[in-house]
UniProtKB/TrEMBL annotation:
GTP 2 binds at residues 210-217, 257-261, 322-325. SMART domains: AAA. Associates with the 50S ribosomal subunit. CDD domains: EngA1, EngA2. It holds the Pfam family MMR_HSR1. Keywords: GTP-binding, Hydrolase, Nucleotide-binding, Repeat, Ribosome biogenesis. Gene3D superfamilies: 3.30.300.20, P-loop containing nucleotide triphosphate hydrolases (3.40.50.300). This is GTPase Der. Residues 3-166, 204-377 form the EngA-type G domain.
Length: 462
């Protein structure tokens, strides 16, 4: 689970600036779901080794009725969903009554909240920030979001304890991963049966995600209905998905249900039926992400954002275009050509045209889910990776750079889920993107890898 940080504060204190700085390293991918979540912006953040989800809330104006008003509603929801709240104030503007109102709300919430005084560049920070201690939320952290000053220290201070609390076994897991990777190191050696067995015995975690009303619940019910599995009533907050174990053709899965199959009658559940945080956490926790879109709506920017999140997280992807029933041939053709155009960047993902309502095509989804999982977790020997590299190089040699030919010398695996291949050679950092893409596609074809992204890492030297 990734920790969630919410940025709150008055307009103009620098929330967007901090948001952009934090998400920058991952292509600033932002899921903006207007209308659903009222301007909350969600980003995957990877900053100085810290990974988390960051939510920008647009701003609480803090006037007496403002804090309770519709305008502030999105901030209040973001605070509720977050593990940590960074409450930004403007060190140049000084303390305002709006800041006081926000602080009072945060104190009542008993959330882990930190006061962050922004814009300390070019001023005497200690003097300017002293008055914010009156907010009675403890230490006042000084940053200049525009310049990145103090940001790493802030994350270290606020996130380290949360991470330790959330993932106590993380270190042990990392060691396990190392052990799994060891099997790659001996060139051409037989795979370690025991280790491989251990991995393939695990159930496939399949997250079913998509915008509201695309048919996620209908699909989940259809899958479960056909398999007659027992759904255990699992407690959870609005942030948690329901995890449903199931068996199909003797293979085990855990469905990560973001829609809430057991739609409860309570009003609050209906309101929070769609939660971006829930969706992002589900993607993060899954092996394979089944992204459901509505054929009648086409691919929206929100769909692309979700796909982007899955891709950035390195997850396997299967696309389900739902509500394929009752469309005439002309419309179907038009939808298909639009999909080809907009989904070119995930050409490795299988696309299924289904009707969750009638059950058409639903069974075949699992063929692609299995294929994607098997591709993502498959072990490939060093000898094989090297042979494919040599073949690719022989078919189409790397270009000359500065009069010298780039030379690929050696390849080995660097991980799985998604598969990572490491290629060593001379001047590899000068390889043009077109050649990198060529190599990637060559590996994909040679190893028949479908459904999962592939990462190739280049290292200078032997
Ligand atoms: P938001 O409304 O809270 O999202 O605020 P913005 O991020 O849009 O920032 C408001 C203004 O403050 C912009 O003009 C920023 O350039 C400026 N700003 C943000 N961070 C800093 C900073 O660290 N130092 C200075 N001097 N200005 C900043
Ligand atoms: P969710 O919000 O993504 O969980 O979507 P639901 O499963 O609640 O479905 C939203 C609406 O779309 C409901 O009225 C469903 O009956 C309808 N729906 C779902 N799947 C299909 C389908 O395959 N074909 C058609 N025509 N309607 C569907």
């Amino acid at each position: 689970m990734l920790p969630v940080i919410a940025l709150v504060g008055r307009p103009n204190v620098g929330k967007s600036t901090l948001f952009n700085r934090l998400t920058r390293t991952r292509d600033a991918l932002v899921a903006d779901f207007p209308g659903l979540t009222r301007d909350r912006k969600y980003g995957q953040a990877k900053y100085e080794g810290y990974e988390f989800i960051v939510v920008d809330t647009g701003g609480i104006d803090g006037s007496e009725e403002g804090i309770e008003s519709e305008m502030a509603q999105q901030s209040l929801l973001a605070i509720e969903e977050a593990d940590v709240v960074l409450f930004l104030v403007d060190a140049r503007a000084g303390l305002t009554s709006a800041d006081q109102a926000i602080a009072e709300h945060l104190r009542k919430q008993q959330k882990k909240s930190f006061v962050v005084a922004n814009k300390i560049d070019g001023i005497d920070a200690d003097i300017a920030t002293a008055e914010f201690y009156q907010l009675a939320l403890g230490e006042v952290h000084q940053i200049a979001a525009a310049h990145g000053r103090g940001v790493t220290q802030l994350l270290e201070y606020t996130l380290t304890p949360i991470l330790a609390e959330m993932n106590p076994q993380q270190e042990a897991l990392d060691e396990d991963d190392e052990a799994l990777l060891d099997i790659y190191d001996d060139e051409g050696k037989e795979l370690d049966e025991e280790v491989v067995q251990d991995f393939s015995d695990k159930p496939i975690k399949l997250a079913i995600v998509g915008r509201p009303n695309v048919g996620k619940s209908t699909l989940t019910n259809r899958i479960l209905g056909e398999e007659r599995v027992i759904v255990y009533d699992m407690p959870g907050t609005t942030r948690d998905s329901i995890y449903i174990p199931m068996t199909r053709n003797e293979r085990e899965y855990i469905l990560i249900d973001t829609a809430g199959v057991r739609k409860r009658k309570k009003v609050s559940d209906v309101v929070e039926k769609f939660s971006v945080i829930k969706t992002l956490q589900a993607i993060e926790d899954a092996n394979v992400v089944l992204i459901v879109v509505d054929a009648r709506e086409g691919i929206s920017d929100q769909d692309l954002s979700l796909i982007g999140f899955a891709l950035n997280a390195g997850r396997s992807i299967v696309m389900a275009v739902n509500k394929w029933d009752g469309l005439d041939e002309y419309v179907k053709e038009r939808i298909k050509s639009e999909l080809d155009r907009r989904l070119g960047f995930i050409d490795f993902a299988r696309i299924h045209f289904i009707s969750a309502l009638h059950g058409t095509g639903v069974g075949h989804l699992f063929e692609s889910v299995d294929e994607a999982y098997d591709s993502a977790t498959r072990r490939v020997s060093t000898a094989m990776l090297r042979r494919i590299m040599d073949m690719a190089q022989a078919d189409h040699q790397p270009p000359l750079v500065g009069g010298r030919r780039v030379k690929l010398k050696y390849a080995h695996a660097g991980g799985y889920n998604p598969p990572r291949f490491v290629i060593h050679g001379n001047q590899v950092h000068d390889l043009p993107d077109s050649y990198k893409r060529y190599l990637m596609n060559y590996y994909r074809k040679a190893l028949n890898i479908m459904g999962t992204p592939i990462k190739i890492e280049f290292r200078e030297g032997d």
